[in-house]
Amino acid sequence: METTQQTESKIIELKPFTDEMVVNMGPQHPSTHGVLRLELRLDGEVVREAIPHIGYLHRCFEKHSENLSYPQIIPFTDRMDYVAAMNQNWGFCLAVEKLMAADESKDFAIPERAEYLRVLICELNRIASHLLSFGTYGMDIGAFTPFLYAFRDRERLLLLFEKICGARLTYNYIRIGGVSEIIPMEPGSIDEQNYLDEIESFLDYFEPKIDEYNDLLTSNSIFSERTMGVAVMSAEMALSYGATGPNIRGSGVDWDLRRDEPYSIYDRFDFDVPVAKDIPELGAVVGDCWSRYKVRMDEMKESVRIVRQILAEGLPDGPVMADLKAVRPPKGEIYFRSEAPRGELGFYIVSDGTPKPVRLKGRSPCFSALSALQELSRGLMVADIIAIIGSIDIVMGEVDR
Amino acid sequence: MKPEEIYKTLADKFGESILGFDTELAGDPIIQIVPSAIADVCQYLAETDTLAFDSLMCLSGVDLGAKEEELSVVYHLYAMQHRHSVVLKTSMPKTDAHLPSVSHIWKTADWHERETYDLYGILFEGHTDLRRILLPDDWEGYPLRKDYKEPDFYRGMRVPY
Q: CB distance A359–B62 less than 8 Å?
């Protein structure tokens, strides 16, 4: 009798498959970072296939843009990646400026002061965006505390943005030809000094906090168990899927547009590009969820370094807007990409010489990174799906546009 | 390599499939390609060592409007190793818009082609899962075409507001 039971249990062990079950995760789900629906085909707790369904936040950004003049489009870019809206504004303005610069009859240069303000504010926005990513990732995995810590610090950054442009989330601050001067800040004035001092005091406060967060979450053993060695994305796979930014650096590709194809004034600053490495003593593998997360944590330190260099130099004098008569790029087309917190944000603009674009496409970094989810999640557990989504750090506003 | 050199290499290899090299307009120079040859050209660009285009930055559909009754698909490629980029463009009539898929070369093309199909109605032959991605499955028409008219109602909801 005993032997039969043993044989039977062996047979059960050898055939561990159950009936396939389809579970819809989302669109309303706290861990999908917005309105993402995943059609999970489950074998018990093992994911056979996770099919992403997107489009719940589609607002026809590209169609709208064809009926708007270039400056009117900037608020729409705010609503793409709404947690790093400054960077989205900037990416769009850079593309338009590059197309305008192709017309040699119109001579304009972005004022130095505007360039410094742009880098300053966009790097702060990168910190705010990575803070949100860090906090929500911890919460996805089951650690509630980091979320509160991250939002406490992000709040100070939002107050800084509010002081310079009046808005906390959708800034419309960076304009074509410079930055907005909706809240005047005279060069060398007491207002400017106070503002820079405030940023400095934030950095002094924030820099040690990064180590605290690393103690709190990065080296937390539950967090490590959930993320290390999970969903390894090889460098080839990351390239093929068009993953960019922290995701591709998490796969060990040493690539950052700010350093490798410097735009604006990034070539003047000294900063490192964090790239994931194998850490055998901890168990981290290049390309796993933890590596992608860790790159973001390290990037915050580099952003602090860049901002500190700007503060040490001080903002240059002069205007914040170039002398543009009208925003009317010449007939032609351009694709320009910049390094947003979530990766390469590209704008493809086709112009026919009128004040409105014929075609505007926003190449969203999250859109490409999310397409890798299906392959990444195959054969993993349901709980790992949460870890993957958090680690590729998507914002649905940008995926769906 | 410079775009001109890439154009020469492609013209030598593919002959009449390469239609021309546009430089007169502002912005990036563009290599014009016959739609049916696009997958072969991309395969060649991705697999030749001297070119090694390993990333597809962007794939977009374009409709220039009523006077030109054609749709275009634009490919922005980049090679990490050689750090050069190239722009390919292919145009086809609106009434019969189809071209080979490149999703077997770069996996990111999968979703980008689905998006282009969704918004322009361009069919990508050889794509394994060509269905709408941003719009609902039962949406009618292709909204980014210039001659698109939005429906009055969608499932009983008024569309224009």
A: yes
Say which of A58, A102, A253 has its CB closest to residue B135. A58
Residue B51 sits in a domain whose CATH number is: 3.30.460.80
For B56, the domain range is 3-158
At residue A2, the pLDDT reads: 47
Supply A60's token pair.
């026809």
Q: Which residues of A touch B135 (CB under 8 A)?
A: 55, 58
Contacts of A351 in chain B (CB under 8 A): 26
Q: Does B30 touch chain A (CB under 8 A)?
A: yes
**What value of ipTM does the predicted structure carry?**
0.90
Domains in chain A: ranges and CATH: 16-400 (1.10.645.10)
Cα–Cα distance for residue pair B92/B110, rounded to 1 Å:
20
A216 backbone dihedrals φ, ψ, rounded to 5°? -70, -45
Predicted pLDDT of residue A203: 92
Q: CA torsion, points A275, A132, A115, A248, in degrees to nearest 10?
A: 30
One-letter amino acid identity for A39? E
Total-model pTM: 0.89
Helix (H, G, I), strand (E, B) or coil at A199: helix
> What is the rounded end-to-end Cα distance, in angstroms, of chain A?
64
